[in-house]
User: What shape does this take?
Amino acid sequence: MVVEAGDVDVFEQSRGRLEAIAYRLLGSAGDAEDAVQDTFLRWQATDRELIETPVAWLTTVLTNICRNQLTSARARRETYVGQWLPEPVPAGDRMLGPAETAEQRDAVSMAVLTVLERLSPNERVVFVLREAFGYPHAEIAAMLELSEANCQQIYRRAREHVSAGRARAVTDAAAARRVAEEFLAATVSGQVESLVRLLAADAVNIADGGGHFPARRTPMVGALVIARFLRSLVQPGMAERFLPPGAEVGMHAAVVNGGPAIVITAAGRVAAVVCLDVAADGRIAALHVQANPEKLTRLSRQWPTS
Assistant: This one.
């Protein structure tokens, strides 16, 4: 069917929200863009005169596309090389969606997006639409063809899974950057004791190299173990083992996915991102290291201006 300019405008007005929903559901900005494009193609092919509420129709179509992708993604990740982590997104990127409240910012943190991987597709959809976008249970139930009571039950179960063991510090962007700067200073100092003081005793370091970059296949656990590892990374000559020869390496404090992060650059691109999960006592409870180049292209494009 022919798409009139007005129909395109209707879709474009929803694009940012659709991308934000898809990113939180899929954990990948690239997959989110593809899902939104598939939604547009279906919008283009349907009889739009029969659609009473375009926003609801578009959200329903996108949600079902993402549900199908989540089901197939589980099978693909069984053969993924090493640990799988979401794709990091810098502060200000519309993929992050609403970030007015602490709950909305926390819901898009690397830690929470990683936990969401353990949920079923329905649990993930209900949690994201309710927690981050405030959709009423009745609307979510209609999208998923469930009863409202069932939808509420799924939400409670999903929230329990996500909240289990999470007692995190609430930080705004300024506070997140201060945490990142303090952690970066301790890392480049080469002083193990300084790093240990910033880390929780049972801190966890999880790295995703995707088979393209050297990364441990199992998490690293313990403040002292992690501190010694980080200290080794800033030793002379260590960077050359992992990065292009002669590349100028930079380490930058940043805000990524709403939280503190260290961005490592080399040869004009982002080589790795270390997202820091801050516990309620202010210590670093987890480090999520994304070093898979396939998941850093969007951040690399935005980094010079982010």
